[in-house]
Design goal:
477 residues; alpha+beta; Trefoil (Acidic Fibroblast Growth Factor, subunit A); Spore Coat Polysaccharide Biosynthesis Protein SpsA, Chain A; seven-stranded mixed beta sheet; 32 strands; 22% helix
Length: 477
């Protein structure tokens, strides 16, 4: 349903009350209405996130203009050519604007045969005309143009990230999408949105682009000894220094919020999310990485990357993240060994008559796992966790390697799902490097091997110091 059709439904009633519709108003000059407290008048601005952007509430054929002031109060604006007044309640507006000629998502606001009008210089007044300056595009918070403005996107067409700073309304009721100009009518009529994470847009009449929301998340799990949190600190510090990454982090842990915030005090708290998860033993710890797919905190992100804490970053990972985002496989992992071997599910596969290792199937490490979004892996990840705990319930010792995450994940993905060991292979490297392999400036260096950090923390600290050049860790290691 188009915005225009939805606006017409505002005249309907639900159980005796008028349905309210709320919009931002975009002018033909590409500006959004806001209230200037300095001038005590309506104006338009190209800053869609201006703190005093006006919301138009439509009830039937009446329109009420309001904004939220710096104290969080909603104030209603009654504009006129003799100065505007604001009121603390909508009920005080005895003679509201009339909204008319709603067609194809556009509206005019009329009062006594005068029409609200937005001028090229940003001023707003009332005129007797009913032309283009008086015409406004009604943008609901859920409409596609506003959704595009609030996020970064990855364009399949141009194979690059379109930063939200590159997306803006421009004159003529159009949207500049990182250099591609799209009519708002075209977005409303011909774009196909798949949930909130991706959509197909058409521009220049016939050109098609599929775009994916780019809101990346890196998550790590850390429990147990203090050394695990030293590794957590070093891993994230190296990503911040070399990873060309500005997204959020999710820490899965049994430590308190204050502890994690202090540990990562070089990051704004807004970029640090915490998932509190109690653990009893190593079986619980290795399951933690797979329990995140059903958490509410992960649902709005894509792409998502899990990394063990025994990983140091030495160069940009942005290309790796976009490779994960644009791919079709369920997960993206580092190739490591033969699927017939026990560390890659060989024992489990050999005991399952319906599971087979088909050459050249290659087993993978669960130290680094990339996936497009949580929805895609929710069933797989939950099934891996269930497989682990089902074995324990059936009598398998909780310390047995056959219930560790890597063998179970390899067994499951080899039998029932899909994975890719090529897309991120050149960005993830084991330590020590194989003969003649140059890993400087390659991406993520994984100090794999064994459970727990004690036997390798000194090597990781040494490499971290080398990568960070000065070795200065702020006294927190």
């Amino acid at each position: 349903m188009t915005l225009a059709a939805r606006a017409y439904t505002c005249a309907l009633h639900e159980k005796g009350r008028v349905v309210e519709q709320m919009y931002k108003c975009i002018s033909t000059h590409g500006g959004v209405l806001y209230f200037s407290e300095n001038e005590q008048s309506l104006r338009s601005t190209h800053d869609i996130n201006h703190p005093h952007v006006v919301t138009v509430t439509i009830e039937g054929n009446k329109a009420y203009l309001s904004y939220v002031n710096d104290f969080g109060e909603t104030l209603y604006v009654m504009p006129s050519n003799f100065g505007s007044a604001v009121y603390g309640s909508k009920e005080l507006i005895a003679d509201a604007f009339r909204i008319i000629k709603i067609s194809d998502s556009y509206a005019y606001f009329e009062k006594n045969r005068f029409y609200l009008s937005s001028n090229p210089d940003g001023s707003v007044d009332l005129k007797i005309y009913m032309e283009v300056y008086e015409k406004f595009f009604l943008a609901s918070d859920t409409c596609l143009p506003l959704r595009l403005l609030q996020d970064n996107w990855f364009s399949m067409d141009r194979d690059r990230i379109i930063d939200r700073s590159e997306i803006k309304f421009i004159s003529g009721f159009r949207l500049d999408f990182g250099g591609v100009v799209i009519n708002l009518d075209s977005l409303e009529s011909f774009a196909y949105a798949h949930a909130d994470n991706e959509c197909t847009i058409i521009y220049d009449g016939f050109k098609i682009d599929r775009i994916y929301r780019y809101r990346p998340l890196i998550y790590l799990s850390s429990f147990g000894r203090e050394q695990s949190f030293t590794l957590l600190n070093m891993c994230i510090r190296s990503i911040e220094e070399h990873g060309d990454y500005s997204g959020d982090y999710l820490i899965v842990t049994n430590k308190s919020e204050d502890y994690i915030y202090r540990l990562l005090d070089f990051l704004p708290q807004s970029r640090v999310k915490i998932a509190a998860m109690p653990v009893i033993d190593e079986a619980d710890m290795v399951c933690a990485r797979f329990k995140v797919a059903t958490l509410p905190v992960t649902q709005s992100y894509q792409p998502i990357l899990y990394t063990d804490t025994d990983v140091i970053c030495n160069s940009s990972i942005q290309e790796m993240l976009t490779a994960i985002l644009r791919g079709d496989e369920k997960i993206y992992v580092k190739a490591e060994g033969d699927l017939s071997l026990d560390p890659y599910g060989g024992y489990l596969t050999s005991r399952d008559d319906n599971a087979h290792v088909v050459p050249p199937k290659i087993g993978f490490s669960t130290g680094v796992i990339g996936f497009k979004n949580a929805t895609i892996v929710a069933q797989d990840f939950s099934s891996i966790v269930n497989c682990i705990y089902s074995q324990i319930q059936a009598g398998t010792d909780r310390h047995s390697h056959q219930i560790y995450d890597q063998p179970v994940a390899n067994y499951y993905y080899n039998k029932l799902s899909t994975y890719n060991v090529d897309a991120i292979d050149r960005f993830v490297h084991g330590w020590p490097p194989i003969e003649n392999e140059h890993i400087t400036g390659k991406g993520l260096i994984h100090f794999c091997g064994g459970v727990g950090p004690m036997h390798k923390i000194d090597r990781i600290k040494s490499y971290f110091g080398h990568v960070m050049m000065s070795g200065d860790t702020g006294g927190r290691l």
